[in-house]
């Protein structure tokens, strides 16, 4: 491998890791912000996530540059393809996080009563974070990466199950509240659905990194 090519490739790996870590940091801030009703943490999360799209585009441009200037061997080519697709998934996850922080701040400020649903919301959030952690760890793993893929699937299934319970509990609230409150709870349900999708995006990332390690076909949601 040419030294310059190797440097470029390692730089891309570093950027992908940084993107993932920043998103995870933002999502943890959002979780703590919701639990403690600390709106400043939600604002801090949004500021972190605002930078993700531009950094993801920077990574994409570096990958395209390598394609144009070099001829990567099969294994590295797979990894570059996986990176190119991963940045798109990370951008979507960041977008969901920005939306959550913005709207959850509004719901907290309006005094929404989270009694009976807060536990499920927190657990959905935690499962989405875990799914992304397991998925992004695959790239840095030399062993047990298939286990991390399985762990990602487990967390994704957990978000599905928890969301169904949350949906049931919110519908109970909707039936017992006035129209204005009901609309807020429906909005919260739609907001939490984004975490269900975050877990789906994490599975896609896991599949792409598994493809980079093993080859085969990429099958995503």
Structure description:
It is a single chain. By secondary structure, the chain is an all-alpha fold. The protein has one domain: Phosphate transport system protein phou homolog 2, domain 2 (Methane Monooxygenase Hydroxylase, Chain G, domain 1). It is built from 7 helices and no strands. Helix 5 packs antiparallel against helix 6. It is elongated, with a radius of gyration of 19 Å. The model has no long low-confidence stretch (mean pLDDT 89).
Oligomer description: single chain
**Residues in β-strands, percent:** under 5%
> Ends: how far apart?
34 Å
Radius of gyration: 19 Å
Order of helices and strands: HHHHHHH
Averaging pLDDT over every residue, what do you get? 89
Tally the beta strands.
Answer: 0
Q: Spans with pLDDT under 50 lasting ≥5 residues?
A: none
> What is the CATH domain class?
Mainly Alpha
> What does the overall shape look like?
elongated
Q: CATH homologous superfamily?
A: Phosphate transport system protein phou homolog 2, domain 2
Count of all domains:
1
Which CATH architecture would you pick?
Up-down Bundle
Which structural class best describes the helix and strand composition? Answer: mainly alpha
Q: Helicity level, as a percent range?
A: over 70%
- Total count of helical runs of at least 4 residues: 7
What is the CATH topology? Methane Monooxygenase Hydroxylase, Chain G, domain 1
Key features of this structure:
about 220 residues, mainly alpha, 7 helices, single chain, Methane Monooxygenase Hydroxylase, Chain G, domain 1
């Amino acid at each position: 491998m040419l030294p310059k090519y190797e440097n470029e490739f390692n730089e891309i790996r570093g950027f992908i890791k940084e993107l993932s870590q920043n998103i995870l940091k933002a999502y943890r801030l959002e979780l703590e912000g919701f639990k403690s009703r600390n709106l400043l943490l939600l604002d801090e999360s949004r500021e972190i996530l605002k930078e993700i799209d531009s950094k993801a585009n920077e990574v994409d441009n570096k990958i395209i540059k390598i394609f144009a200037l070099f001829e990567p061997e099969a294994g590295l080519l797979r990894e570059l393809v996986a990176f190119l697709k991963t940045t798109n998934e990370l951008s979507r996850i960041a977008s969901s996080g920005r939306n959550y922080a913005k709207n959850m701040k509004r719901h907290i400020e309006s005094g929404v009563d989270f009694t009976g649903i807060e536990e499920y919301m927190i657990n959905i959030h935690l499962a989405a974070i875990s799914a992304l952690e397991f998925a992004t760890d695959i790239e840095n793993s030399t062993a047990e990466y298939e286990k991390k893929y399985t762990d990602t699937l487990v967390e994704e299934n957990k978000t599905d199950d928890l969301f169904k319970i949350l949906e049931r509990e919110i519908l109970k609230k909707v039936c017992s509240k006035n129209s204005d409150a009901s609309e807020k709870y429906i909005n919260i349900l739609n907001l939490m659905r984004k975490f269900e999708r975050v877990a789906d995006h994490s599975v896609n990332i896991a599949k792409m990194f598994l493809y980079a390690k093993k080859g085969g076909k990429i099958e995503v949601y």
